[in-house]
What we know:
Elements: H1 2-34, E1 37-47, E2 50-56, E3 62-66, H2 69-75, E4 80-86, E5 93-94, H3 100-130
Antiparallel strand pairs: 1-2, 1-4, 2-3, 4-5
Helix pairs in contact: 1-3
Amino acid sequence: MDQTVEAIFEIFSWVGIGLGALLLGVALIVYVADGTWLPVRAVIDDTDTGRVARWHDEVDGVNEAVLTPDQDAEIGDADMADVFYRRGVRGRIRMTQGSPAVRGVVRLGAGLLALGVVAMVASLVLLFTRG
């Protein structure tokens, strides 16, 4: 029975540390690919196609983006909103600076890495207590 538990801990440690490190590397790549998102105060207007956000970017260009239903619900009836736009890309905004995809991959990678470390510590404890 002890050998089965040790084998399970060993598998969890290798898989957890390996996949956790791999996912954290993927998160870094996704973070870099996501680009730079800058904060801006946008004016919200009603148009025939729906509500739009208009703002000036860092090079004083005027931008416009149609609000998604989620963004529209989050902004509510406000005439102005604090949003984030991607540097160098026109017509794209989001409500948070960080990407939800990056956060999810980081959390999954960190969780697997923590599982691997805990399993490795438990495996070492079993190794030394058994003698």
